[in-house]
Amino acid sequence: MDYTILVTGSTGNVGSQVVKQLSSFKGKVLAAVQSKNRAEEVKNTGAELVEMNFNNTETISAAFKGIQALFLLTPFVPNMIEISDNLVEQAKKANVNHIVKQSAFGSDTEQGITMNRLHREVEKIIESSGINYTFLRPMSFMQNYLGLADSIKTQGWFSFPLGDSKTSFVDTRDIAAVAVQALTKSSEHRSKTYNLTGPEAISNYEIAETLSNIAGRKITYVDVSADDARKRMKNSGMQEWSVDSLMELFGFQKGSNASVVSPDVERVTGRKPISFVQFATDYAELFRPS
Ligand SMILES: NC(=O)c1ccc[n+]([C@@H]2O[C@H](COP(=O)([O-])OP(=O)(O)OC[C@H]3O[C@@H](n4cnc5c(N)ncnc54)[C@H](OP(=O)(O)O)[C@@H]3O)[C@@H](O)[C@H]2O)c1
Q1: Residue 267 belongs to some domain of the structure
Q2: Shortest-distance Cα residue to atom 11 of ligand 1
Q3: Structural domains of the chain, count
Q4: Residues near 231 by beta carbon (within 8 Å), at least 6 away in sequence
Q5: Could you tell me if 159 and 48 lie in one domain?
Q6: CB burial class (10 A; 0-12, 13-18, 19+) of residue 203?
Q7: Residue 115 near ligand 1, beta carbon < 6 Å
Q8: How far is CA 284 from the centre of its chain?
Q9: 89 shares its domain with 221
Q10: Å from CA of 13 to ligand 1 middle
Q11: Which portions of the chain are predicted below pLDDT 50?
């Protein structure tokens, strides 16, 4: 029987890369999607699409039938613990052998910010489930800047309330590379927690300089106050809970923990993590004026 891996969040930043990098895996890969009609990119990876909604237990238990390994990624939402608790419960019922959970850097500090607190609660549920596990705790993604690419292209600047603080941003392709190792070599990676960062900590001033070089035009980082950042996010229609959580995250990024550089990507994959310059080069077209 084929070893079967199911990837949740397969249309997102990390999950899409996990599915892509599993394309040469000899067993079977199931990409869980909310709707087959909205999964064009995943369709070309060779993975089998399976419709599943985190809020519908029947779809979860049907999707988990016969799988051995699960990449568990949920969006960061207020009911993340309830959703994940149910996913783990269904994984137990389906006799899943190994869960690789996408968590977040800093989730070892139990009194930490909301994002870390919720991820740690989910990790504890998995620890007590009896299922083998690997926890991936990535730093902020380089790919978060892709979400700003359109406005950077039109206005030539981006802003954060982060001063000149440095963060060891990680490329989601590196998170996926570690996930693939853990999903396909369970015995080597069970009960392990990996802190996933890029090769260096960099400030938004350095990021603006890199993007300027790549785009061939001046791109400026504007350091805004916490109050300004909060107002902008509220005006853009973001929910209060999301705004509060992001402001906490900015506070974390301003602290010294976010500049920690971990050796874990290289330890697991055997190669250096992707640098921000490499990331920006690979996605250059998105930042260049059209
Ligand atoms: N961004 C960062 O810098 C960062 C850093 C560390 C940790 N994290 C953690 O990483 C996770 C987010 O990862 P990401 O950026 O890869 O996610 P993402 O791009 O936002 O994608 C979320 C995925 O979840 C799927 N999804 C949403 N609601 C669903 C539902 N009800 N049922 C089934 N699937 C559903 C989405 O499917 P659709 O496409 O169909 O909506 C999508 O595939 C969060 O847990 C966050 O805390 C993020």
Answers
A1: no
A2: 75
A3: 2
A4: none
A5: no
A6: middle
A7: yes
A8: 21
A9: no
A10: 7
A11: none
pTM of the model: 0.97
162 in the same domain as 214: yes
Find out whether the beta carbon of 257 lies less than 6 Å from any atom of ligand 1. Answer: no
10 and 119 share a domain?
A: yes
pLDDT at 11: 96
H/E stretch holding 6 = strand 4-7
Q: With respect to residue 62, please indicate whether it lies within any of the assigned structural domains.
A: yes
Handedness of CA 227, 74, 285, 277 (dihedral sign): positive
Distance, in Å, from the CA atom of 78 to the CA atom of 95, rounded to the nearest integer, reads: 28
Q: Whose CA is nearest to atom 28 of ligand 1?
A: 75
Q: Do 105 and 116 belong together in one domain?
A: yes
Ligand 1 mean position to 128 CA, how many Å? 24
Q: Tell me: do 40 and 10 sit in the same domain.
A: yes
The per-residue pLDDT for 219 is: 97
Domain coverage including residue 221: 143-167+199-259+272-287
Whose CA is closest to atom 8 on ligand 1? Answer: 104
pLDDT tens, position by position, 173-227: 999 999 999 999 999 999 999 999 999 999 999 999 999 999 999 999 999 999 9
Per-residue pLDDT, 284: 96
Q: What is the CATH number of the domain that holds 46?
A: 3.40.50.720
Q: What is the pLDDT of residue 290?
A: 78
- pLDDT for position 133: 98
Q: Is the CB of 34 under 6 A from ligand 1?
A: yes
Atom of ligand 1 nearest to the CA of 13: 16
| Residues recorded for the chain | 290
Ligand 1 within 6 A of 141 CB? yes
